[in-house]
Specification:
42% of the residues lie in helices and 19% in strands. With 359 residues, the protein is an alpha/beta fold. It has 2 domains: 175 residues, Rossmann fold, CATH 3.40.50; 135 residues, Response regulator (Rossmann fold). InterPro entries: Bact_Solute-Bind_Prot2 (IPR050555), Peripla_BP_I (IPR028082), SBP_2_dom (IPR025997).
Length: 359
């Protein structure tokens, strides 16, 4: 990777302009980062990792530890200040301000709300702290790392069309309107579904990606739709797919219609093995997290990459998603050591794993 030096400006004066946050905000930040921010940021060796929520299991289980491990490998004396916003955009703004005040030289930010995160970007850049938009796009960020999110939706839509035989009524459960990726997933899915013979009888934008909301929405729709007449369900991620499955199970459904998903959560993979969910979209998080860590360390060291592509005027790394169904679990998430067979094939799923050739 070719790199060129970056001129860095002292942040002392700019940091003095950062607004002090309330004691309650400081307490919330400390609670999230106490175990991770072991350094004091002196010498400009602190990278702040700000993730949006914990309801999606990938963040705590994969993104955080993979990012931290790669930073440690690349930079022995670097500190990762980890902060999670718990789906609260205001809290994330406070956390970003606190991270800069505490000496972060780079922010790696996965925003709760892409629009409000533009303010974080401007404030950070005024303090000479570059921002890497992680997984979700932020206008004006210095860099962006994610997957081809419209393609994610297309993979989901294509799988649903194939599984239904391109006929029948479906439900659509999209992601949070504040999540910039959710609009891309939705657009990609509609690119396929709108050209098919499937009929969307009800569509829902889940305000916080909540599985509980997904279950409630699906249950309410089953009051108007005979479950046996439901050809399939577009669920934008595995958490919502789990909510959909719970609603169908509670309604006494024995043969489940195809349900899509995303993130290759362990529970989602297990449902796929058991025939309770049709597919998920696997996004190799290790590649994404390690690329973000490499970029953050490069920026901290005054270097910048020359191998990015352009996405909405932001230098970017755009990675490819992969559709996962029962017949390629072994060749995707198991092969990449995302999960082991033992993790997937617990006692509850032993028979299903044997039938799927996974045990």
């Amino acid at each position: 990777m070719g790199r060129k030096p970056v001129n860095r400006i002292s942040r002392t004066a700019a940091l003095g302009l950062v607004t002090l946050i309330s004691a309650a905000g400081l307490t919330a930040c400390a609670a999230n980062s106490a175990d991770d921010a072991s350094g004091d940021g002196e010498g400009g060796k602190t990278i702040a990792l700000l993730l949006p929520e914990t309801k999606t299991t990938r963040y705590e289980a994969f993104d955080k530890p993979l990012f931290e491990a790669k930073v440690k490998e690349l930079c022995d004396d670097c500190t990762v200040n980890y902060l999670n916003a718990d789906q609260d955009a205001s809290k994330q703004q406070q956390q970003a301000q606190s991270a800069i005040t505490d000496g972060a030289s780079v922010l790696v930010l996965d925003p709760v709300d892409g629009k409000s995160a533009e303010g974080i970007v401007k404030s950070s850049q005024s303090s000479d702290v570059p921002v890497v938009a992680y997984d979700r796009f932020i206008t004006g960020a210095d860099y962006y790392i994610s997957f081809n999110n419209e393609r994610v939706g297309e993979l989901q839509g294509e799988a649903l069309v194939d599984a239904t035989g391109d006929s029948g009524d479906i439900l659509m459960l999209n992601g949070a309107p504040t999540d910039p990726n959710a609009a891309q997933f939705k657009q990609g899915a509609h690119n396929v579904i709108d050209e098919s013979k499937l009929t969307v009888v009800a569509e829902y934008d889940n305000p916080d990606w909540s599985p509980d909301n997904a279950q409630q929405f699906t249950s309410s729709q089953l009051n108007n739709i005979d479950p046996d007449d439901l050809a399939g369900v577009y669920a934008a991620n595995d958490g919502q797919a789990g909510g959909v499955f719970a609603a169908l199970k509670a309604a006494g459904v024995s043969e489940y219609p195809p349900i899509t998903g995303q993130d290759a959560e362990l529970a989602g993979i297990q449902r796929i093995i058991a025939g309770e969910q049709y597919m998920t979209v696997y996004k190799p998080i290790k590649t994404e997290a390690e690329q973000a860590a490499q970029l953050a360390v490069d920026l901290l060291n005054g270097e910048t990459p020359s191998d990015t592509t352009d996405f909405q005027d932001v230098p970017s790394y755009i990675l490819d998603p992969i559709a996962v169904m029962q017949d390629n679990v072994k060749d995707t998430v198991v092969k990449d050591e995302f999960y082991t067979v033992d993790q997937i094939c617990t006692d509850q799923y032993a028979d299903a794993c044997a039938s799927a050739g996974l045990s």
